[in-house]
Amino acid sequence: MSGMRKILIISVVMATAGLAGVVVQTLAEAVLGYTDTPMLPSGKWHVHDLNRPRPPVVTPGASFSQGAAAASDAMVLFDGTDLSKWEGEKGAAKWTVREDYMEANKTGYIHTKEKFGDMQLHVEFAEPEKVEGDSQERGNSGVFLQYAYEVQVLDSYDNPTYADGQCGALYGQSPPMANACRKPGEWQSYDIIFEAARWNENHELARPAIVTVFQNGVLIHYKQPLLGPTGHRTLGHYGKELPATGPIALQDHGNPVRFRNIWVRKITEEERP
Ligand code: MG
Predict the structure, then answer these.
(1) What is the pLDDT of residues 11-42, one digit of tens each?
(2) 142-176: b or e for each residue (b if 16 or more CB lie within 10 Å)?
(3) Which among 163, 207, 210 has a CA at the least distance from the CA of 44?
(4) 59 Cα: distance to centroid of ligand 1 (angstroms)
(5) Are 150 and 251 in contact (CB under 8 A)?
(6) Model's pTM, two decimal places?
(7) What's the gap in Å between 201 CA and the centre of ligand 1?
(8) Distance from the CA of 142 to the center of ligand 1, in angstroms?
């Protein structure tokens, strides 16, 4: 168990009747973080550091971009009716489509057929209303940009986990600047501005990928460079040159997380004056 600490979550319920006491204990184990993982470049924290402070809880405004209609130049990736813009790891996308949303159902990741580089991406998600599991096992999913970099989706409403793995984290790299989560069952939004990594003519990294994210109208990342594609318990790094574009993927982590109203606008690098 070198370096890994398991936290026992102990709920003690006491019911007393007169002088007689009844004690009921339920035990569950949740991994809340690690200290045996590689050090991040800042030299302050390990990947998934158990001791890294979690960001402050911020209650988002009553509404932000939930239900936001797409602009005329946006590509609608999911309007609530079908998965025609998506495919699975082996063939057709098989997530459940119901009412105006899709739901992960243990059939694997799904990803867009179209590939994207720099983009403005709108995604809405809802955590399972029925709260089950702790830490990373509660409402885990994720939005993968270029099928490489994960913006974590997790039920982080009163659910401690390592800071760089909570909802809104650039998984394994950067915690969100705030915990702006809504309650389980409520619709939430991500508005993501992504700039793909740039490579020079020698196929060396010229500039890392950069991401800005709003969760429910709260800025949680601002022009944050990505260390490389997402890993688990490993340090993100750029290996060989990545393609300029890649699919958007949604993670099936075994929890019934819902998504709706997904659209994207391709953007080009803004000219400097
Ligand atoms: Mg995830």
Answers:
(1) 333 333 333 333 333 344 678 999 999 999 99
(2) bbbbbbbbbbbbbbbbebebbbbbbbbbbbbbbbb
(3) 163
(4) 22
(5) yes
(6) 0.89
(7) 34
(8) 4
Report the CATH superfamily, name and number, of domain 36-266.
Answer: Exo-inulinase; domain 1 (2.60.120.560)
Residue-wise pLDDT for 213-244, tens only, equals 999 999 999 999 999 999 999 999 998 899 99
Give me the phi and psi of 213, to 5 degrees please. Answer: -135, 135
Q: How many CB atoms lie within 10 A of CB 255?
A: 22
Residue 31 identity (one-letter amino acid): V
What does the angle CA 261 – CA 59 – CA 219 come to, to the nearest 5 degrees? 65
Taking a C-beta distance cutoff of 8 angstroms, is the pair 143, 190 a contact?
yes
CA distance 209 to 224: 8
* DSSP letters for 89-131: TTEE---EEETTEEE--SS--EEESS-BSSEEEEEEEE--SS-
